[in-house]
Amino acid sequence: MLKGVVASAVLLLVVVLVVRTVHLSRRPPQTSECKPTDSDFIPLNDERLQRFQKAISFESVSRDDGDSNSDEMFRYGEFIIASFPHIHRHSPLVTWERVNNLSLLYHVQGSDPSLRPYLLMAHTDVVPVTNLDQWNAPPFSGEVKDGFIYGRGTIDDKNNVMGILEATEFMLASKIRPQRSFYVALGHDEEIRGYQGAGLVAKRLAEKGVKEFEFIVDEGMAVFEGIIDGVSSPVASVGVSEKGMIVVKLSVEMPPGHSSMPPKETPITVLANAVKRLADNPQPSMLGYGVETDMFESLVPEVLDYDRAVIGDPRVKMEVIQAMEPHPVAGYRDTDFGYQVTIMVGNTDTIHYLNFTGDVYRFSPTHMFPGDPERFHGINERMSVKNYEQVINFFYHLIRNADQAGLSPAHSTHSDL
Ligand SMILES: *[C@@H]1O[C@H](CO)[C@@H](O)[C@H](O)[C@H]1NC(C)=O
Ligand SMILES: *[C@@H]1O[C@H](CO)[C@@H](O)[C@H](O)[C@H]1NC(C)=O
Ligand SMILES: [Zn+2]
């Protein structure tokens, strides 16, 4: 007997918001290249390397809502607190707290209260490990092999967690006081959407009276080498927005019948045809749409209308299970902190902080060569020893450069696409 058949399909909106590319040569002039011979270069000594390896060794895995290695996350947090004495104990500039026991929030007080603070984000949780037999080194070892540090979290996202902390610790130990205040938020459940971590940190920030950030830097794109067609030099890509997302349930109900006398059409064939038509006719690019019009105008009805027209069969019912609008587009002019821009393809924790700024830059200083993107959430996740040193120095320079007043003016509009 055939009853109604219900299927759900995940349809990712192809809302490409940003295509304009700004070549690296158009970097703001105030940023100069950093070299290991600079007096402010932070070398990756044994201590710093070992701290990173130790960070990798915590199995701080998020699997699903309510299914995380909380004990390991807590131990990782304890390790962080013990490992950076200036941040957690000695410096009068820092206030910090645990949020929801497992996330960490820091405030570093700058000397100039007229400069709007910014936020550096990272997450301490990692995704589970699969295909253990195919790893070149145990995934929670942090083992160094042929110049690479192996392990879950080396590029997502313990590199950024530890890089931000090393840079901050170095600055405080050097008795340098930044002019611009900044916050650091280390969430513990980004891999499962961040409601217990970043979500509550955002709430806490609002409670503390924080209203606006100058900008936010979160994980995201990377430095691509030999990956972008036709470009041989390294390309630093900064995500300035995120795609929207919609989950739609399709269902078909038809009168029951007996399978010994199958009708010409069944709910299964009607549904299969609908799915086939959707697959053959993907959502058009809405480039510019959400930006040129009011960016808070909902795109969901447009998307549903399109799908309904493509399916062209009123027997297929559509129901929105979940939807997220594309994020606002961060400014990316020369005066806006510009790097090359491209679009972020996954969804991260930044959604929890959008009330604080329109300028979210999704960038990790991770060098990616052909074959490396598959290591994200994949097998043999690794980062070169040299790259980890660059990560630390990237954050240090970011913190120092953020003192420049040139970044300060508020961006009146993001509608320049
Ligand atoms: C924090 O989490 C750890 C690890 O799960 C747990 O042992 C501890 O009791 C928690 N503390 C609080 C205050 O909830
Ligand atoms: C952002 O602000 C809106 C309107 O004030 C509020 O409804 C929403 O809950 C806030 N979102 C977050 C993540 O705090
Ligand atoms: Zn991540």
TrEMBL record:
Protein name, as recorded: N-fatty-acyl-amino acid synthase/hydrolase PM20D1.1
Say yes or no: keyword Nuclease present: no
Which pathway does the database say it acts in?
Answer: Lipid metabolism; fatty acid metabolism
UniProt lists the family membership as follows: Belongs to the peptidase M20A family.
Q: Which residues form the signal peptide?
A: 1-21
| Ranges annotated as spanning the membrane | none
The protein's job, in short, is:
Secreted enzyme that regulates the endogenous N-fatty acyl amino acid (NAAs) tissue and circulating levels by functioning as a bidirectional NAA synthase/hydrolase. It condenses free fatty acids and free amino acids to generate NAAs and bidirectionally catalyzes the reverse hydrolysis reaction. Some of these NAAs stimulate oxidative metabolism via mitochondrial uncoupling, increasing energy expenditure in a UPC1-independent manner. Thereby, this secreted protein may indirectly regulate whole body energy expenditure.
Keywords, ordered alphabetically:
Hydrolase, Metal-binding, Protease, Signal, Zinc
Under InterPro entries, the record lists: Pept_M20A (IPR047177), Peptidase_M20 (IPR002933)
Q: What reaction is this protein's catalytic activity?
A: N-(9Z-octadecenoyl)-L-lysine + H2O = L-lysine + (9Z)-octadecenoate; N-(4Z,7Z,10Z,13Z,16Z,19Z-docosahexaenoyl)-L-phenylalanine + H2O = (4Z,7Z,10Z,13Z,16Z,19Z)-docosahexaenoate + L-phenylalanine; N-hexadecanoyl-L-phenylalanine + H2O = hexadecanoate + L-phenylalanine; N-(5Z,8Z,11Z,14Z-eicosatetraenoyl)-L-serine + H2O = (5Z,8Z,11Z,14Z)-eicosatetraenoate + L-serine
Q: Name one Pfam family in it.
A: Peptidase_M20
Recorded GO molecular functions are: aminoacylase activity; metal ion binding; peptidase activity
- Gene3D superfamilies, sorted: 1.10.150.900, Zn peptidases
What is one GO biological process annotated to this record? amide catabolic process
